[in-house]
Sequence to fold (197 residues):
Amino acid sequence: MTPKRPASGKTRKPDPAPPPGPASEPPTESEAGEAPSGRLDRWDLAILQALQADARLSNAELAQRIGLSAAPTWRRVRWLEQQGYITGYRAEIDRRKIGLGVLAFVRVDAERNNAEGTAALEARIRELPEVVACHYISGAGTFELQVVATDLDAFARWSLQSLFTLPNVKDLHTSFSLGEVKAGAVLPLTHIKPQAR
Fold:
């Protein structure tokens, strides 16, 4: 599987050899209910919760944790990947440990909110490795960027060389993180009512 974007903050151990039979073979009713139908049941939610907590779990460890046997667990994980619920696995790195002590939030106001100008700005933003996240925003501004740098001097240099040269930009507003209260990208699942299959 080719990761698209993070779904967990930890690196996953390689799974053991897949169980016999095709990957698309559904779990038996006695083991895990009916075949996947596009709706998440309690087993799917348990898998998502467990992998968000520790994506390094092997298939056997995951199966034991959620209370299923290995074969249906493996098939369900593959189904969740194929359906786009799980979009990737990655290691979550402490930015401070690797010398990235500055986290800045930069609001970008576009000069012209038209398709051509916005596409050019988007393309340039995607090319900047220092920009670790970018969102369209409502209200004042067009984009909100999260930018990392080693220190304030490095951020200032990067701003002059990269940020201020972005196309179709009218104004920039920057604020800096003074401390991290919560991070980790673990998504809540309590709003999802498990579906019977």
Observations:
- Helices lie at 29-32, 42-53, 59-66, 70-82, 115-126, 152-161.
- The radius of gyration is 21 Å.
- Residues 1-11, 16-31 have pLDDT under 50 and may be disordered.
